[in-house]
Amino acid sequence: MITVIAAKLAAFAAAIAASAAISYSLPAFHESTWDGNLANGSYSSVATSFIVPTAYCGHGESQAAFWAGLGEYTIAQAGVALDCSGGHAGYSAWTQFYPRAAAGLAGIVRPGNKIRVTITRHGGTTDSATVTDYTEHWSHTVTAYGFYAGETAETIVEASDGPLAAHSPFHFYATEATR
User: Fold this and answer.
1) Which end of the chain is more exposed for a tag (fewer CB within 10 A), N or C?
2) CB atoms < 10 A from the CB of 63, how many?
């Protein structure tokens, strides 16, 4: 079992190293409720990797979402959310084809897990969102038909409703945006 996990982690590290050489750099952008990287243009896919941060929950409620997406006013997006309530943290993976409602994904998400998110436009009005957890060994892809995301590529950290949850240092790795 340890050998299998070590091999998966080595594959994850190799994927990060290999994709870093061909990544586009998305320019940094900041708004009052989110922070991240955004590139305007005609992108057909965006992918990024990250390690799920540890939440530092106080007694109130707060949240943070770590995601990649394509779009501007309509957005194909997927990632990991952490929600703090009553001093306890909850972690989950999700996809959303905004303005449609978000959908949670089955699979355990914990701090320290190695995640890869990929959003792909398959031409016309079909987009897909994939979240892969290399630590827990699961991957889910959701496809939306009759949907067209805008043309920006983005990697974002945000609080969609309420204050941003305090968390350990966080970075997106091996981000790739394809035109």
Assistant:
1) N
2) 20
Closest CA to 70 of 165, 161, 154: 154
Its pTM stands at 0.80
What phi, psi does 113 have (nearest 5°)? -65, 145
Closest CA to 16 of 64, 50, 42: 50
Spell out the domains of the chain, with CATH numbers in brackets: 2-178 (2.60.120)
- For residues 72 and 62, what is the distance between their CA atoms, to the nearest angstrom? 25
User: What is d(CA 88, CA 68) in angstroms, rounded to the nearest whole number?
Assistant: 25
> d(Cα 119, Cα 97) in Å, to the nearest integer?
11
User: pLDDT category, 62, cuts 50, 70, 90?
Assistant: confident
- Tokens representing residue 128 in the block: 């897909």
Whole-angstrom Cα Rg for the chain: 16
- In three-state secondary structure terms, 152 is coil
Query: Amino acid identity, residue 156?
Result: I
The side-by-side arrangement of strands in the sheet containing 114-121 is: 138-145, 126-133, 114-121, 45-51, 172-178
Q: Give the span between the Cα atoms of 54 and 63, in whole angstroms.
A: 12
Indicate the pLDDT class of residue 51, thresholds 50, 70 and 90: very high
